[in-house]
Amino acid sequence: MDFDDILCFLKVAEEGSFVQAAAQLGMSAPTVTRRIQRLEDHFKSTFFVRSRDRIALTHAGHTFLDYAISLADTIQSASEEFNLGSRYRPRLRIGAVSSVLSGHVAPVVERVQRRFPNAKIEIFDAPSRRIQDMLEANSIDIALTYAALDEHLHVTVPIARDPFVIIEPEGSQGNGKQIRTLEDLTRLNSIAPRRGGGVRMLIERYLRELNLKIEWDFEVQNLFSVMSLVTSGLGWGIVPVTALATVDMSRLRIVNLPEFNLTRNIYAIRIDHFEMNAASRYMWECLVETASDGGAGQQEGRSQPDPTD
After folding, report:
1. How confident is the model at residue 226 (pLDDT cuts 50, 70, 90)?
2. Which of 178, 181, 168, 170 is nearest to 226 (CA)?
3. pLDDT confidence of 299, banded at 50, 70, 90?
4. Beta strand ranges found along the chain (DSSP E)
5. Beta strands in 40-173 (DSSP E)
6. For 72-207, where are the E strands, in sequence order?
7. Whole-number Å distance between alpha carbons of 109 and 113
8. pLDDT tens-digit map of 119-156
9. What is the Cα–Cα distance from 308 to 141, expressed in whole angstroms?
10. Phi, psi (5° rounding) for residue 120?
11. Which domains are seen in the chain, by residue range?
12. To 10 degrees, what angle do helices 29-43 and 18-25 make?
């Protein structure tokens, strides 16, 4: 048994395939198979269950995975200490809703890259429900969504707040009036994302608390469409601040009303009791540090539990 055997084991566990692992390692599939068999013989255990379409870890395989990750991280740290290259590339898999990528994912990923320059980083952009499914299937290591998960099975940390704002076209509305009070929202043309979506439910729940009943004039598919119609001058809308990064702000005006104070949490989530490699662990520590520095607690606002979008 040597360290290449450990690398083969880690890569097969990651890829779920001997063939794909071999391609990643630059080895032949029979070579990878022999190395795994040598490991299994050495520890007198079976690490993988082999089927036609997938390779899965056994209970013994999951147990050995923790040790293999720890060993590989140690070799990685020693290689960095002595300025040596390392064939071990820790993999970091992040799933995030699109609106948090630039403001919350990118800065932390940059820190991870500086700490682990050879890390293989995969970022998946999807709605909250899909991100949660990927986390449950162990397809990602860390999820960033607007919906918290079962605390008995997951570690969930609110890392930031995402306030909502009222937006209207720059200049005046079609009837020559601008929004100056909450009551104006009921009189001027309004634009909302699709019925049944998490953002729509969140907005309408909050408006009910303000005793406002809005008969939406336009319903569109997503927040991008809301902002597009607002910039076209068709009416006003309510969007999270993170979404504004994708729109030309010179054509919009943010309406500041003291009575309007809606916000939602952004959560970082991982599976509890699951061993993370060094890159994933560092990413998680950076996210928790963001929360500790006040990312989820310093902005004022009425935080609402967000249905999955």
Report:
1. very high
2. 168
3. very low
4. 48-50, 55-57, 91-96, 120-125, 142-145, 154-169, 191-193, 218-220, 237-240, 252-255, 262-271, 302-304
5. 48-50, 55-57, 91-96, 120-125, 142-145, 154-169
6. 91-96, 120-125, 142-145, 154-169, 191-193
7. 6
8. 889 999 988 888 989 998 888 999 999 888 776 778 99
9. 19
10. -95, 110
11. 1-87 (1.10.10.10), 163-263 (3.40.190.10)
12. 110
| Stated length of the chain | 309
Distance, in Å, from the CA atom of 237 to the CA atom of 265, rounded to the nearest integer, reads: 20
CB contact burial 142-155 (16+ within 10 A = b; e otherwise): bbbbbbebeeeebb
Residue 246's nearest CA partner among 264, 266, 221, 224 is 224
Burial class (CB in 10 A: 0-12, 13-18, 19+), 208: exposed
Phi, psi of 266 (to 5 degrees): -105, 125
Are 192 and 200 within 8 A, CB to CB? yes
End-to-end Cα spacing for the chain: 48
Cβ of 199: how many Cβ atoms within 10 Å? Answer: 24
CA pair distance 227, 69, nearest whole angstrom = 45
